[in-house]
Amino acid sequence: MKNAKNVQNELVIYPGMNWQPMQVSEYWSDVFVYLVKLQGRQPHVKGISGEVDHIPQKGLVKFEEEPIFYLKEFGGMRLALGKQLMSYCAQDVSATHEVFCVLLEKYFDRFPHPVTFAAMLEMGQCYLPLNQNWERYLQDSQETYENLQDEMKILLMQIANENCLYLHDDLYKDDPWLWDLDWSVEKFRLRKKYYDTLNDSPVIEKNKKDVKTTTEDEEGAGEEELAADLDEEELEEERKLEEVRAKLEKTLEFLPKVNQHMAGYPAWYRDLCPRQSLPEFRNSPSLISSQTRVTPKLLRMTWEGYPLHFIAKHGWGFLVPKDGDWVNNEHETDTSTLDDENNIDTEGTDEGSEDQKQFPVRSLRALLAAREKQQRNKRSSEINEDDQEVDDVTKSMKKKRSNAQSPLYNGRKPCIDVEIAGCWFYKLPHKDGGNANVGNPLAKDFLTKIEDGTLSSEGGLEAEKILEINKVISSWRNSSKRILSQMVVHFNKSDLPPKVTRDRSYDDEGMYGAILPRVITGRYSHQEGCGTNMAYCNKCFGNTLKMFFPSKPDRVGSELKAMVQAPPGYHFVGADVDSQELWIAAILGDSNFVGIHGCTALGWMTLQGNKKDATDMHSVTANTVGISRNHAKVINYARIYGAGKKFARHLLMQFNDSLSSNEAWEKAEGIFATTKGEIKYHLLPEGEKLCSLPEVQTLPEIEDEEWVSGEELNKISSWLSQKLQKDDSLDGANLPTEVMMASKDSKFTNILKSLTDKQAWFNGSESHMFNQLEAIANSPEPRTPVLGCRISRALEPQAVNNEFLTSRVNWVVQSSAVDYLHLLLVSTKWLFDLYKIDGRFSISIHDEVRYLVKSEDRYKAALALQIANLLTRCMFAYKLGMNDLPQSVAFFSAMDIDKVLRKEVEMDCVTPSNPHGLERGYNIPKGEALNIHELLERINRGEGATVSKENAQPKVGVK
Known about the structure:
Distance between the termini: 87 Å
């Protein structure tokens, strides 16, 4: 049982969560906080019906901290701890059964609609069929990955060898990347006897005599043996070789007993070379990879043209010269100024030490000046002689130099505790915010920055090739372990249904099997909420679903999804729900306004908006604040899920690193002012009386006596506070004592509580939608509007009061989307049974649903899904008080009928590991994408039937 004092420190804080410390009540911590593990749940639920309370610990199963589940080997016999293990397992099953009995009753109480439970059972039957192409895919992906990895390794070793040469003449001191590496060299050590020879000791004389005697004897023997075959010239050459060999053998006694590791090489290079004792020793920097700390420096990586630098306290960042005007002073830099900058006192900083390395400011300035001149010449050759365009280029260059002159670089402040001569150190932007450190600029989070040129390299073609290979292998490197760990079951021919074995495409020598998906129904991941807080929803979640990632032509193994292939005689039938959460949010807003579809601005854009005409919601948001549509789409969904202005600013700065914090905040405020609107507070009768006073009505901008904005309330409270300080009475208002006391206190929060009872949004395109979402989230028992599913007890208002509103708003949208999925699955199952369609549920990923259907029934199954979608949308409209449904949202825009799983039926999934694509490489044709009208035509023509081996008739040629 957790202590309430420790609960606050153990709460998980997710990105984008505006969390403030709150006083955790004993009731909340005792009732709602316990481990997910069985030993954490059992004390709370065993034998308890109704609300969960404390129960005595007597009689509970005692769980071992580290139960033993292994076999001992002794004398060639395997002895199992049978009694102990069986007893543990039996008690575990018994405890699980007791917990399940209690939780199941509570489940039906909180999720009363039978559709919820039926859909969860359906989602628990995921099925992903495979064939021999799965093993081929794994082999091709792994081989391609290893080949590219080896190529990258060779290039990295080559670059490391080239940079090692900078040790000569101390060239590294003038390099903006290599200057702070550890260039210390370990000298070659010999035994003391060697140094005696340098002082003409008797040892050397003895060695000379021994060498002379030995060589004379060996020469005599050699002459007798080689005289018959060797001429005089060859004999002389052989004598010299023997003499050298003899001298070398005599020097062996000078070597130390323990061989030195890479003596004569710099320390950073020695760290990349394995020790001689290791089997893979190749006397080369074979330990280098894209993960090693020194790699970005060896590649000479830059951020917007500035060299990267690593500080242990701040992670990776980049260095910007303090004097930004390096173009005009390229060859006229004052050396005295540089000397002063190079001798900055760094005592007490990260960079300060007795052997302080000096940063080569002059080299960096020269590099930046040369690059900017090159860019200026390139621009001048590309643009016309238009003065306006020339002025734009000039202004752009001046702005870049002004950024370097100012401590603020694109809104980011330098790290003031890092002092490097003549430079500011700025941290690289991290996806989790400015306080997080970047550990590796070659990680997957920076691949987009490499693609758009923000993160680049000055290391030449080899370095650019390394960055390209690192991008190509990133997906497989990050996902291969999860993919290879999937549970694959192989079927014998006797295990397959006759429909499969009788199909003409069945291969007797082929492999047929399936993945046993590791999915958990009734769970929700915060990652699907665009960074907003976690909320519990009945979604399908698990390790298997995580492995599917989009197919891209420059990612190894990204054709993974298409390797899930239907067996002979079957097809995949499914669709993506069009803007599911967006439509749900819009219809909630419409029902809260007039109760007509499209009566709000959001509802109208959802029904009639067109991406081509830029009238859809995402295009409108993009045009409002001047961002791309894709970025606007992410921000829009984040707002619908409950994210605020701070998270929107964070996203904007993440999308565009050149935006300052103030610029991003202005754009975020513009988005929220246009969409969410302005918040206003509803006045209590006492507040209405106050606003009816003539003196209050004369205040500027006080227009409404029922709803007031925060600014208006501030003016009223200010006037009231001043009035009461002069006179304790207030004629005509008859305010209660608590209101008078709050007004004297002049604290806005106190006056807000005493004069208002609720808040709402006004004058925004989505105001009605947010008002409805917050009304549901703040209700005493928050429930989804369609199936009536209740929120987790830990987030109900009685437990958290007004806290975690973002999580509860997120839950309304996400859980309503889950209700949509549950209704769709159950309706489809009912239609399959009703019309005897041979098909089963395969998988559901986000808003995508797929069924495995007999080929003859594929069009009927597609129509059943269309009807199920129509019934689901009608159910939503009916539950929200609407008795009609627009045709534009009644059906799926397209039904995908395919032999494999893929995002689009026409995708050929060409990747580095699948260069020939699916059609040429795997002989898999493109699928079909049919709208409702095309689907009805196919069914009316009776298409879809396939011919089995038994019924196949030979074709008759025409004479």
